[in-house]
Amino acid sequence: MKFLVLALATLALAVSAQLQHNGAWGTRGPQDVLLFRENVVAKSKWLRVNKVDLSYPQRGQNGGTITAINVYDGSTNGKGGYAKIKAGGVGQNNVTIRFKSQRGKAMNFTVEIYGQK
Ligand SMILES: *[C@@H]1O[C@H](CO)[C@@H](O)[C@H](O)[C@H]1NC(C)=O
Ligand SMILES: *[C@@H]1O[C@H](CO)[C@@H](O)[C@H](O)[C@H]1NC(C)=O
């Protein structure tokens, strides 16, 4: 019985991990600091795909050298969107990330960019 509960819990964890569309690029080193953190949220639109481009550094910010970019999908049911890097990225001092929702679905991502100032 105990084993079954444990097996089910493990399975549930594995499934929920798969249902999140997280993204990770690069590796955060011990000297790296959080350069930027932002939530990217879009409401569902009937039959529409939401596209949001997020750029770092934002106007008035000085960009640091990026070592790691993490994207967490706040949607755990597999209905969240997807993130991909459109320009810049790890090793550069700027990045543009494109977020796309699924058709007719909302999205809710958290972006963290680490690096050296
Ligand atoms: C987005 O996800 C976060 C973390 O799961 C949650 O706390 C927050 O309420 C969500 N926001 C929206 C608008 O769904
Ligand atoms: C991003 O950084 C690269 C060099 O790291 C530079 O060539 C490019 O012009 C920058 N792009 C923007 C949009 O600032």
UniProtKB/TrEMBL annotation:
Secretion signal span: 1-17
What keywords would UniProt list here? Signal
Protein known as: Salivary secreted peptide
